[in-house]
Amino acid sequence: MSFPVDLTAALSGASVAQLHSWRRTHLLQPELQDNPVRYSFRDVAALRTFVYLRSKLPLQRIRKAMDQLRKWDLTEHPAAYKLVTEGDSVFLVEEERAIDLVRRPGQEVIYSLADVFASFENMQGRTVADFRRPRPHLEVKENRLGGWPTIQGTRVPYDAVAKLVAGGVAPSEVHRFYPTVEISGAADAADFHQEVVQIGGRAA
Predict the structure, then answer these.
(1) pTM as predicted
(2) Paired strand residues for 150
(3) Model confidence over 101-156: pLDDT tens digits?
(4) Alpha-carbon distance 138 to 143, whole Å?
(5) Is 26 a residue whose pLDDT tops 50?
(6) I need a surface site. Which of 12, 83, 92, 201 has the fewest CB within 10 A?
(7) What does the alpha-carbon distance between residue 139 and residue 133 come to, in Å, rounded to a whole number?
(8) What is the DSSP letter of 15?
(9) Which residues make beta-bridge pairs with 198?
(10) For strand 90-94 and strand 138-139, is the pairing parallel, antiparallel, or unpaired?
């Protein structure tokens, strides 16, 4: 599954301009070589980590952390690494420990990754939706449709339902097309779709 720029921006918290800048400066090159640009699920997860870190730290420290990973010959996709911050440095999380990458490279501390996936405010002041639950009745699971947001407890893509609602089908009637989708799931799909469209529109 590949993610267009607007959905990538909505799920990661990055602005469309940041995505362009980070591609140009090689902070993160999309795994997919598509035109127009599309991102993989791993790209989106890595970008969300960068946005979370950027809400706490200068971009130079994030670049320094990525450079440190390369120095240690850790050259996996950035999504393979759990990166967090306490507000001063960037840490690589491995099981129960975290290793400082910027201030004191190699020093260990204890840290949690939960903050990166929870809702937070990005540098532009936009509240970034919870990564695993962009809305209460939507879910993002990597092993379900490649991480594409779906209606909770189903394999129904959020945008398929949102397009029905946008086409005039009331949320209470969506179950006629998708019997497993409840009114709350249809309403959340339409609401999240509006956010994705607004983010994409800001870049137009």
Answers:
(1) 0.75
(2) 139, 157
(3) 998 888 887 555 577 788 988 888 889 999 999 999 999 998 999 999 999 999 99
(4) 15
(5) yes
(6) 201
(7) 5
(8) -
(9) none
(10) unpaired
State the CB neighbour count (10 A cutoff) for residue 180. Answer: 12
Q: Phi first, then psi: give them for residue 2, nearest 5 degrees.
A: -115, 150
Evaluate whether 163 touches 174 at the Cβ level (below 8 Å): no
How far apart CA 63 and CA 134 sit, in angstroms, is 27
> What whole-number percentage of the chain has pLDDT above 90?
65
Q: What CA–CA distance (Å, rounded) separates 122 from 128?
A: 7
User: What ranges make up the beta strands (E) of 9-153?
Assistant: 38-39, 82-85, 90-94, 97-100, 108-109, 120-121, 127-128, 138-139, 150-151
C-alpha closest to that of 197 among 165, 152, 153: 165
Q: Which residue has the tokens 């980590």?
A: 49
Q: What are 46-63's pLDDT values in tens digits?
A: 999 999 999 989 999 999
* Both structure tokens of 64: 């320094």
The strand pairing partners of 11, in sequence order, are: none
